[in-house]
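no rush on this but wanted to send it before i forget. what follows is a protein written twice so to speak, once as letters and once as C-alpha coordinates for the fold. mainly i need to know what kind of three dimensional shape the backbone takes. thanks a lot i owe you, the record is right below.
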Amino acid sequence: MRAARLSALAAASALALASCSADAPAESSPTATSDTQPGVTAGPGGAAPSASAPGVTTPVTTVTVAGTSDIATGLAAPWEAVFAPDGSALVSERDAGRILRIDGDSATPLEGPGAEALASAVDATGEAGLLGLALLPDDPNVLYAYLTRGDGNAVVRMSLDGDTLSEPVDVVAGIPKARNHDGGRIAFGPDGFLYVATGDAAQPDLAQDQGSLAGKILRVVADGSDSDGSAAPGNPFGDGVWSYGHRNVQGLAWLPDGTMVASEFGQSDADELNVIEPGANYGWPVVEGLIGAPDGTALGATVDGLTYPVAEWRPTSASSPSGIAATEAGVFVASLRGEALHWVSYVDGVFGEPEAIIDDLGRVRAAVVDGDGALHVLTNNTDGRGSPGDGDDRLVRVDLDLEG
Protein backbone atom coordinates (compact mmCIF):
# COMPACT_ATOMS: atom_id res chain seq x y z
CA MET A 1 0.00 0.00 0.00
CA ARG A 2 1.10 3.54 -0.51
CA ALA A 3 -0.48 6.85 0.31
CA ALA A 4 0.03 10.15 -1.48
CA ARG A 5 -1.56 13.50 -0.68
CA LEU A 6 -2.79 15.62 -3.55
CA SER A 7 -2.35 19.07 -2.05
CA ALA A 8 -2.27 22.59 -3.35
CA LEU A 9 0.29 23.74 -0.85
CA ALA A 10 3.79 23.05 0.30
CA ALA A 11 3.99 22.15 3.97
CA ALA A 12 5.17 25.57 5.04
CA SER A 13 2.41 27.26 3.06
CA ALA A 14 -0.23 24.93 4.48
CA LEU A 15 0.53 26.13 8.00
CA ALA A 16 0.02 29.69 6.95
CA LEU A 17 -3.21 29.10 5.05
CA ALA A 18 -5.06 27.04 7.66
CA SER A 19 -6.83 24.53 5.47
CA CYS A 20 -9.25 22.30 7.34
CA SER A 21 -8.58 18.70 8.28
CA ALA A 22 -10.66 15.61 7.72
CA ASP A 23 -11.61 15.51 11.40
CA ALA A 24 -12.56 19.11 12.10
CA PRO A 25 -14.03 22.01 10.15
CA ALA A 26 -11.76 24.86 9.19
CA GLU A 27 -11.98 27.95 11.29
CA SER A 28 -13.23 31.01 9.48
CA SER A 29 -10.39 33.38 8.75
CA PRO A 30 -10.76 36.99 7.72
CA THR A 31 -10.66 37.61 4.00
CA ALA A 32 -10.17 40.86 2.17
CA THR A 33 -13.00 42.10 -0.03
CA SER A 34 -12.05 43.42 -3.43
CA ASP A 35 -12.58 47.14 -3.81
CA THR A 36 -13.78 46.55 -7.36
CA GLN A 37 -16.08 43.59 -6.75
CA PRO A 38 -18.28 44.10 -3.68
CA GLY A 39 -19.53 40.93 -2.08
CA VAL A 40 -16.82 38.65 -3.42
CA THR A 41 -14.00 37.72 -1.09
CA ALA A 42 -10.82 35.88 -1.89
CA GLY A 43 -8.92 34.01 0.77
CA PRO A 44 -5.15 33.98 1.10
CA GLY A 45 -5.00 30.44 -0.25
CA GLY A 46 -5.02 31.68 -3.81
CA ALA A 47 -1.76 33.58 -3.52
CA ALA A 48 0.58 31.02 -2.03
CA PRO A 49 2.92 28.93 -4.15
CA SER A 50 1.75 25.36 -4.63
CA ALA A 51 3.61 22.12 -4.31
CA SER A 52 3.41 19.78 -7.28
CA ALA A 53 1.19 16.78 -6.71
CA PRO A 54 3.29 13.66 -6.16
CA GLY A 55 3.49 11.27 -9.07
CA VAL A 56 1.20 8.28 -8.77
CA THR A 57 2.93 5.10 -9.90
CA THR A 58 0.37 2.49 -8.79
CA PRO A 59 -3.40 2.46 -9.34
CA VAL A 60 -5.45 4.48 -6.88
CA THR A 61 -8.09 2.36 -5.15
CA THR A 62 -9.13 4.69 -2.32
CA VAL A 63 -9.65 8.44 -2.24
CA THR A 64 -10.29 10.32 1.01
CA VAL A 65 -10.88 14.03 1.42
CA ALA A 66 -8.23 15.27 3.82
CA GLY A 67 -9.60 18.81 3.97
CA THR A 68 -11.20 21.69 2.12
CA SER A 69 -10.60 25.42 2.20
CA ASP A 70 -12.25 28.39 0.54
CA ILE A 71 -10.29 30.22 -2.15
CA ALA A 72 -13.13 32.69 -2.87
CA THR A 73 -16.64 33.28 -1.53
CA GLY A 74 -19.60 35.42 -2.54
CA LEU A 75 -19.61 34.38 -6.19
CA ALA A 76 -22.89 34.79 -8.11
CA ALA A 77 -23.95 31.71 -10.12
CA PRO A 78 -20.38 30.77 -11.09
CA TRP A 79 -20.05 28.27 -13.92
CA GLU A 80 -16.40 27.75 -14.77
CA ALA A 81 -12.97 28.21 -13.24
CA VAL A 82 -9.68 28.01 -15.12
CA PHE A 83 -6.23 28.55 -13.65
CA ALA A 84 -3.63 30.78 -15.28
CA PRO A 85 0.10 29.97 -15.12
CA ASP A 86 0.56 32.62 -12.42
CA GLY A 87 -1.80 30.67 -10.13
CA SER A 88 -4.74 33.06 -10.38
CA ALA A 89 -8.15 31.69 -11.34
CA LEU A 90 -10.58 33.09 -13.90
CA VAL A 91 -14.20 32.43 -12.90
CA SER A 92 -17.24 32.98 -15.12
CA GLU A 93 -20.51 34.17 -13.60
CA ARG A 94 -23.34 32.81 -15.73
CA ASP A 95 -26.09 35.38 -15.26
CA ALA A 96 -24.03 38.57 -15.08
CA GLY A 97 -21.90 37.63 -18.08
CA ARG A 98 -18.85 38.55 -16.02
CA ILE A 99 -15.39 37.06 -15.53
CA LEU A 100 -13.52 37.52 -12.25
CA ARG A 101 -9.84 37.03 -11.60
CA ILE A 102 -9.26 35.45 -8.19
CA ASP A 103 -5.70 36.19 -7.10
CA GLY A 104 -4.62 36.03 -3.49
CA ASP A 105 -6.86 38.33 -1.48
CA SER A 106 -8.39 40.07 -4.49
CA ALA A 107 -11.35 39.32 -6.73
CA THR A 108 -11.22 41.63 -9.74
CA PRO A 109 -13.72 41.75 -12.61
CA LEU A 110 -12.11 41.75 -16.01
CA GLU A 111 -12.73 44.97 -17.92
CA GLY A 112 -12.36 46.45 -21.36
CA PRO A 113 -14.25 46.03 -24.64
CA GLY A 114 -14.48 42.26 -24.27
CA ALA A 115 -15.94 42.40 -20.78
CA GLU A 116 -18.48 45.00 -21.87
CA ALA A 117 -19.43 42.95 -24.95
CA LEU A 118 -19.93 39.76 -22.93
CA ALA A 119 -22.13 41.46 -20.35
CA SER A 120 -24.28 43.16 -22.99
CA ALA A 121 -24.59 40.17 -25.32
CA VAL A 122 -25.23 37.37 -22.84
CA ASP A 123 -28.74 35.89 -22.79
CA ALA A 124 -28.98 34.43 -19.30
CA THR A 125 -32.40 32.84 -19.67
CA GLY A 126 -32.95 29.69 -17.65
CA GLU A 127 -29.68 27.76 -17.54
CA ALA A 128 -28.09 29.72 -20.41
CA GLY A 129 -25.56 32.53 -20.07
CA LEU A 130 -21.78 32.89 -19.84
CA LEU A 131 -20.57 29.32 -19.43
CA GLY A 132 -17.22 27.71 -20.25
CA LEU A 133 -13.76 29.27 -20.38
CA ALA A 134 -10.43 28.02 -21.74
CA LEU A 135 -6.98 29.60 -21.97
CA LEU A 136 -4.84 28.89 -25.02
CA PRO A 137 -2.15 26.50 -23.73
CA ASP A 138 0.64 28.10 -25.77
CA ASP A 139 -0.43 31.65 -24.94
CA PRO A 140 -2.46 32.22 -21.76
CA ASN A 141 -3.11 35.77 -22.89
CA VAL A 142 -5.70 34.34 -25.29
CA LEU A 143 -9.03 33.45 -23.70
CA TYR A 144 -11.91 31.49 -25.21
CA ALA A 145 -15.44 31.67 -23.82
CA TYR A 146 -18.75 29.89 -24.51
CA LEU A 147 -21.85 32.02 -24.10
CA THR A 148 -25.51 32.20 -25.00
CA ARG A 149 -26.48 35.21 -27.13
CA GLY A 150 -29.60 36.32 -28.92
CA ASP A 151 -28.48 34.48 -32.06
CA GLY A 152 -27.63 31.22 -30.30
CA ASN A 153 -24.72 29.76 -28.39
CA ALA A 154 -21.24 30.73 -29.52
CA VAL A 155 -17.57 30.32 -28.74
CA VAL A 156 -15.59 33.57 -28.89
CA ARG A 157 -11.92 34.50 -28.60
CA MET A 158 -10.48 37.49 -26.76
CA SER A 159 -6.99 38.75 -25.98
CA LEU A 160 -6.20 39.25 -22.31
CA ASP A 161 -3.88 42.12 -21.37
CA GLY A 162 -3.63 42.04 -17.60
CA ASP A 163 -7.28 42.31 -16.59
CA THR A 164 -8.42 43.89 -19.87
CA LEU A 165 -10.24 41.87 -22.53
CA SER A 166 -10.24 42.76 -26.20
CA GLU A 167 -13.35 42.78 -28.37
CA PRO A 168 -14.63 39.21 -28.90
CA VAL A 169 -14.10 37.42 -32.20
CA ASP A 170 -16.45 34.58 -33.14
CA VAL A 171 -14.84 31.15 -33.31
CA VAL A 172 -17.97 28.97 -33.54
CA ALA A 173 -21.41 30.58 -33.84
CA GLY A 174 -24.94 29.43 -34.53
CA ILE A 175 -25.03 26.62 -31.95
CA PRO A 176 -28.74 26.10 -31.16
CA LYS A 177 -29.81 27.47 -27.78
CA ALA A 178 -32.67 26.99 -25.34
CA ARG A 179 -33.54 27.78 -21.73
CA ASN A 180 -31.67 24.58 -20.89
CA HIS A 181 -29.60 21.87 -22.62
CA ASP A 182 -26.99 24.36 -23.84
CA GLY A 183 -23.87 22.30 -23.11
CA GLY A 184 -21.20 24.94 -22.57
CA ARG A 185 -17.96 23.27 -21.51
CA ILE A 186 -14.88 23.94 -23.63
CA ALA A 187 -11.43 22.46 -23.14
CA PHE A 188 -8.16 22.02 -24.98
CA GLY A 189 -7.23 18.41 -25.54
CA PRO A 190 -3.72 16.97 -25.39
CA ASP A 191 -3.66 17.27 -29.19
CA GLY A 192 -3.89 21.07 -28.94
CA PHE A 193 -7.36 21.38 -30.45
CA LEU A 194 -10.39 22.92 -28.75
CA TYR A 195 -13.26 20.62 -27.82
CA VAL A 196 -16.72 22.15 -27.46
CA ALA A 197 -19.65 20.46 -25.70
CA THR A 198 -23.10 21.42 -26.98
CA GLY A 199 -26.57 20.43 -25.78
CA ASP A 200 -29.57 19.32 -27.79
CA ALA A 201 -31.30 22.69 -27.11
CA ALA A 202 -34.37 20.79 -25.85
CA GLN A 203 -34.85 19.32 -29.34
CA PRO A 204 -33.77 15.69 -28.89
CA ASP A 205 -33.75 14.79 -32.57
CA LEU A 206 -31.01 17.35 -33.24
CA ALA A 207 -28.55 15.10 -31.38
CA GLN A 208 -28.81 12.57 -34.23
CA ASP A 209 -28.85 15.21 -36.98
CA GLN A 210 -25.27 15.42 -38.22
CA GLY A 211 -26.12 18.66 -39.99
CA SER A 212 -26.79 20.37 -36.66
CA LEU A 213 -24.26 21.59 -34.09
CA ALA A 214 -26.62 20.63 -31.25
CA GLY A 215 -26.08 17.52 -29.15
CA LYS A 216 -22.46 17.14 -30.24
CA ILE A 217 -18.88 17.36 -29.11
CA LEU A 218 -17.01 19.55 -31.59
CA ARG A 219 -13.26 19.57 -32.25
CA VAL A 220 -11.93 22.73 -33.88
CA VAL A 221 -8.73 24.63 -34.53
CA ALA A 222 -8.08 27.28 -31.88
CA ASP A 223 -4.62 28.81 -32.03
CA GLY A 224 -5.45 32.51 -31.85
CA SER A 225 -5.31 32.93 -35.63
CA ASP A 226 -7.83 33.45 -38.42
CA SER A 227 -8.04 29.63 -38.65
CA ASP A 228 -9.92 29.51 -35.35
CA GLY A 229 -13.16 27.55 -35.61
CA SER A 230 -12.22 25.51 -38.66
CA ALA A 231 -12.58 21.74 -38.47
CA ALA A 232 -9.55 20.11 -36.88
CA PRO A 233 -7.55 17.73 -39.07
CA GLY A 234 -8.61 14.11 -38.62
CA ASN A 235 -12.20 14.79 -37.62
CA PRO A 236 -14.30 11.73 -38.54
CA PHE A 237 -16.86 13.44 -40.79
CA GLY A 238 -14.69 16.14 -42.33
CA ASP A 239 -16.48 18.90 -40.40
CA GLY A 240 -16.30 20.13 -36.81
CA VAL A 241 -18.16 17.17 -35.27
CA TRP A 242 -16.14 14.74 -33.14
CA SER A 243 -19.01 12.73 -31.63
CA TYR A 244 -22.81 12.92 -31.60
CA GLY A 245 -25.96 11.57 -30.00
CA HIS A 246 -25.50 13.66 -26.86
CA ARG A 247 -28.26 15.19 -24.74
CA ASN A 248 -26.34 17.74 -22.68
CA VAL A 249 -22.61 17.30 -22.14
CA GLN A 250 -21.18 19.65 -19.50
CA GLY A 251 -17.88 17.98 -18.57
CA LEU A 252 -14.78 17.27 -20.68
CA ALA A 253 -11.45 15.89 -19.48
CA TRP A 254 -8.56 13.58 -20.40
CA LEU A 255 -6.99 10.93 -18.20
CA PRO A 256 -3.18 10.68 -18.10
CA ASP A 257 -3.23 7.87 -20.68
CA GLY A 258 -5.07 10.14 -23.13
CA THR A 259 -8.53 8.64 -22.63
CA MET A 260 -11.15 11.35 -23.19
CA VAL A 261 -14.14 11.34 -20.85
CA ALA A 262 -17.33 13.42 -20.79
CA SER A 263 -20.21 13.77 -18.35
CA GLU A 264 -23.76 13.97 -19.67
CA PHE A 265 -27.15 14.80 -18.19
CA GLY A 266 -29.83 12.17 -18.66
CA GLN A 267 -33.49 13.05 -19.02
CA SER A 268 -34.86 11.53 -15.82
CA ASP A 269 -33.58 7.98 -15.45
CA ALA A 270 -29.80 7.82 -16.00
CA ASP A 271 -26.89 10.26 -16.06
CA GLU A 272 -23.71 9.21 -17.85
CA LEU A 273 -19.94 9.25 -17.84
CA ASN A 274 -18.72 8.35 -21.32
CA VAL A 275 -15.41 7.56 -22.95
CA ILE A 276 -15.40 9.67 -26.11
CA GLU A 277 -14.25 8.14 -29.38
CA PRO A 278 -14.17 9.96 -32.73
CA GLY A 279 -17.29 9.39 -34.78
CA ALA A 280 -19.12 7.50 -32.06
CA ASN A 281 -22.89 7.82 -31.56
CA TYR A 282 -23.84 8.01 -27.87
CA GLY A 283 -27.45 7.17 -28.51
CA TRP A 284 -29.62 10.05 -27.40
CA PRO A 285 -32.63 10.15 -27.77
CA VAL A 286 -32.81 6.45 -28.68
CA VAL A 287 -31.27 5.33 -25.38
CA GLU A 288 -30.49 6.88 -21.97
CA GLY A 289 -27.67 5.22 -20.09
CA LEU A 290 -28.21 1.49 -20.54
CA ILE A 291 -31.97 2.03 -20.66
CA GLY A 292 -33.17 0.89 -24.05
CA ALA A 293 -30.01 -1.13 -24.77
CA PRO A 294 -30.27 -4.78 -25.87
CA ASP A 295 -30.34 -7.27 -23.01
CA GLY A 296 -26.89 -8.06 -21.72
CA THR A 297 -25.27 -4.82 -22.92
CA ALA A 298 -22.33 -3.98 -20.68
CA LEU A 299 -21.21 -0.55 -19.56
CA GLY A 300 -18.81 0.89 -22.12
CA ALA A 301 -19.94 -1.42 -24.91
CA THR A 302 -20.79 -0.41 -28.47
CA VAL A 303 -23.80 -2.35 -29.75
CA ASP A 304 -25.67 -1.82 -33.02
CA GLY A 305 -23.80 1.42 -33.64
CA LEU A 306 -24.53 3.00 -30.25
CA THR A 307 -21.85 3.53 -27.58
CA TYR A 308 -22.90 3.20 -23.93
CA PRO A 309 -21.53 4.92 -20.82
CA VAL A 310 -18.73 3.52 -18.68
CA ALA A 311 -20.53 4.68 -15.53
CA GLU A 312 -24.05 5.85 -14.80
CA TRP A 313 -26.17 7.30 -12.02
CA ARG A 314 -29.79 6.22 -11.50
CA PRO A 315 -32.00 8.17 -11.17
CA THR A 316 -30.71 11.51 -12.40
CA SER A 317 -31.40 13.09 -9.00
CA ALA A 318 -28.36 11.13 -7.78
CA SER A 319 -26.04 13.31 -9.82
CA SER A 320 -26.93 15.66 -12.70
CA PRO A 321 -23.22 15.79 -13.59
CA SER A 322 -21.63 19.02 -14.75
CA GLY A 323 -17.88 19.74 -14.86
CA ILE A 324 -15.28 17.01 -14.43
CA ALA A 325 -11.57 16.72 -13.72
CA ALA A 326 -9.38 13.72 -14.58
CA THR A 327 -6.14 12.81 -12.79
CA GLU A 328 -4.03 9.75 -11.99
CA ALA A 329 -6.66 8.99 -9.35
CA GLY A 330 -9.53 8.75 -11.84
CA VAL A 331 -12.39 11.10 -12.67
CA PHE A 332 -13.92 13.67 -10.31
CA VAL A 333 -17.49 14.64 -11.22
CA ALA A 334 -19.32 17.75 -10.01
CA SER A 335 -22.95 16.87 -9.26
CA LEU A 336 -25.74 19.44 -9.11
CA ARG A 337 -28.94 17.71 -8.02
CA GLY A 338 -26.87 15.08 -6.26
CA GLU A 339 -25.15 17.87 -4.29
CA ALA A 340 -21.85 16.01 -4.24
CA LEU A 341 -18.42 15.57 -5.71
CA HIS A 342 -18.22 12.05 -7.07
CA TRP A 343 -15.08 10.04 -7.69
CA VAL A 344 -14.93 7.34 -10.36
CA SER A 345 -11.84 5.16 -10.10
CA TYR A 346 -9.86 4.16 -13.18
CA VAL A 347 -7.64 1.12 -12.77
CA ASP A 348 -6.07 -0.75 -15.68
CA GLY A 349 -8.52 0.81 -18.12
CA VAL A 350 -11.58 -0.13 -16.05
CA PHE A 351 -13.89 2.44 -14.47
CA GLY A 352 -15.37 1.89 -11.02
CA GLU A 353 -18.72 2.77 -9.51
CA PRO A 354 -19.24 6.47 -8.72
CA GLU A 355 -18.57 7.27 -5.06
CA ALA A 356 -19.56 10.52 -3.31
CA ILE A 357 -16.52 11.92 -1.52
CA ILE A 358 -17.96 15.37 -0.67
CA ASP A 359 -21.61 15.90 0.20
CA ASP A 360 -21.70 19.04 2.34
CA LEU A 361 -21.20 21.87 -0.17
CA GLY A 362 -24.60 21.79 -1.85
CA ARG A 363 -24.75 21.92 -5.63
CA VAL A 364 -21.37 21.48 -7.29
CA ARG A 365 -20.94 22.92 -10.79
CA ALA A 366 -17.31 22.36 -11.74
CA ALA A 367 -14.27 20.31 -10.81
CA VAL A 368 -10.91 21.61 -11.98
CA VAL A 369 -7.23 20.91 -11.37
CA ASP A 370 -4.77 23.79 -11.12
CA GLY A 371 -1.29 23.87 -12.62
CA ASP A 372 0.20 22.10 -9.61
CA GLY A 373 -2.30 19.25 -9.59
CA ALA A 374 -4.52 20.48 -6.75
CA LEU A 375 -8.24 19.76 -7.11
CA HIS A 376 -10.78 22.59 -6.81
CA VAL A 377 -14.57 22.73 -7.06
CA LEU A 378 -17.09 25.49 -7.74
CA THR A 379 -20.37 25.42 -5.85
CA ASN A 380 -23.61 26.50 -7.53
CA ASN A 381 -26.15 27.26 -4.83
CA THR A 382 -27.02 30.76 -6.15
CA ASP A 383 -28.14 29.61 -9.60
CA GLY A 384 -31.85 29.64 -8.72
CA ARG A 385 -32.08 25.94 -7.95
CA GLY A 386 -30.06 25.68 -4.77
CA SER A 387 -30.30 26.83 -1.17
CA PRO A 388 -27.52 29.38 -0.65
CA GLY A 389 -25.67 29.38 2.65
CA ASP A 390 -23.33 31.92 4.13
CA GLY A 391 -20.49 32.61 1.72
CA ASP A 392 -22.09 30.99 -1.31
CA ASP A 393 -21.09 30.58 -3.97
CA ARG A 394 -17.49 29.60 -3.48
CA LEU A 395 -14.34 28.29 -5.11
CA VAL A 396 -13.00 25.55 -2.84
CA ARG A 397 -9.66 23.76 -2.78
CA VAL A 398 -9.91 20.03 -1.99
CA ASP A 399 -6.94 18.15 -0.51
CA LEU A 400 -7.00 14.41 -1.08
CA ASP A 401 -5.36 11.36 0.41
CA LEU A 402 -4.81 8.68 -2.23
CA GLU A 403 -4.18 5.00 -1.54
CA GLY A 404 -3.56 2.04 -3.74
